[in-house]
Design goal:
mainly alpha, 4 helices, binds protoporphyrin IX containing FE
Length: 141
């Protein structure tokens, strides 16, 4: 049971990583119609929140079922989760209020979209690497 939950948690994390990498190309699709970046951002943020909520849910269930005590690794996961959610909401709010008809603003916002995506990818990848290193006994978290 616990193995299945942890596997789901781990698979969702990898799916999320793939989604984030794909997301880096989203702004490029809006080059012909800058205004469409608002719609793209809305859908992107909704899917983002859906997957990250499932990750947290599977993690919480794993914690309860597996009776894991609060460890540094789990605290780090919760902090990363909260930071990612926070910056995603801030980014979406920025895209929502921006005047994308202005080419300078549009370019700026596209840059923000990609930079935030890269920070999020690094956060998730770092967590995955830390957990792999821990499983191999290289570090203790
Ligand atoms: C509220 C959020 C979360 C909770 C409560 C949670 C909980 C857990 C628990 C209990 C484990 C098993 C720990 C152990 O083996 O000692 C785990 C494993 C793991 N978590 Fe999370 N987690 C959360 C969010 C995240 C996030 C956001 C990420 C990615 C950035 C993540 C990545 C991982 C990875 C890679 C593993 C190792 C899975 C494996 O052993 O195959 N978790 N998590």
């Amino acid at each position: 049971m616990i193995e299945t939950i942890l596997m789901t948690h781990s698979l969702l994390t990898k799916l999320f990583l793939g989604f984030l990498v794909g997301g880096l190309f989203m702004p490029m699709m809006t080059a012909k119609n800058p205004q469409s970046l608002k719609k793209v951002s809305l859908i992107y943020t909704a899917i983002f929140q859906g997957i990250i909520t499932m990750i947290a849910f599977a993690g919480l269930v794993a914690m309860v079922v597996g009776e894991y005590p609060m460890s540094l690794a789990i605290i780090l996961m919760i902090v990363i989760w909260a930071v990612m959610m926070y910056i995603e909401i801030r980014k979406h709010k920025l895209v929502k209020i921006a005047n994308l008809e202005n080419p300078v603003t549009y370019k700026l916002i596209r840059g923000v979209f990609v930079k935030v995506g890269i920070v999020q990818i690094l956060l998730v990848a770092a967590m995955v690497v830390l957990m792999v290193l821990r499983a191999k006994g290289v570090i203790s978290l």
